[in-house]
């Protein structure tokens, strides 16, 4: 059975992968949220099986690939804002950009090494009913491999305007929501040093992880 680190890696890979190096496809704005998750899951698992550099956990390689395709399918600003919590509202535009950059590096560096453990798993997307007016949905999936199936849930929102479509903004592995987990971690840094203190702490963690 996959451990929690491997499961989080699979989830992190899926939400930031949107294809990770695959050609960017012009998809219909009305692609169903469960169809989106199914497609991304299939694509990332195929890549993990065939791309040795990706499986090696090369952080620079993963970041470069994620940067090409992450934004079409992930509301990373909302994800970062949720992790920062109420302090996000008082952050300047420049601070928000730095928070997004450091948070992305933290996620990639935290889970990059576990990508090599994602091997023979498959992902089954559970049936979903979406009403025409729904703007926020929960897509439930199961990771199947050795041992018992493990539930992996995604929160998606329907976005209007340019780049309209369903976008991921949170996910849950083994009962733990990623955004909530980091909000609890970040609260102490925010209490001690405010937004600048959190940015400095994230930068320090990323630097330490890079040197490990």
Overview of the molecule:
The chain contains seven helices and five strands; from the N terminus they run ααααααβββββα. The chain is of the alpha+beta class and 212 residues long. Strands 1-2-3-4-5 form a five-stranded antiparallel β-sheet. Helix 1 packs across helix 6 (93-111). The chain has one domain: Nuclear Transport Factor 2, Chain: A, CATH 3.10.450.
Q: Give the spatial strand order of the biggest sheet.
A: 1-2-3-4-5
Low-confidence stretches: 16-28
CATH superfamily: Tgt2/MlaC
CATH architecture: Roll
Query: What is the count of distinct domains?
Result: 1
CATH topology: Nuclear Transport Factor 2, Chain: A
CATH class type:
Alpha Beta
For the biggest sheet, the summary is: 5 strands, antiparallel
Number of helices: 7
**Euclidean distance between termini CA atoms:** 27 Å
Structural class estimated from helices and strands: alpha+beta
Mean pLDDT: 80
Counting copies of identical and different chains, the oligomeric state is: single chain
Radius of gyration: 17 Å
Secondary-structure element order, N to C = HHHHHHEEEEEH
Number of strands: 5
Range of strand content? 15-25%
Could you estimate the helical fraction of the residues in percent?
40-55%
Q: Shape from CA axes?
A: globular
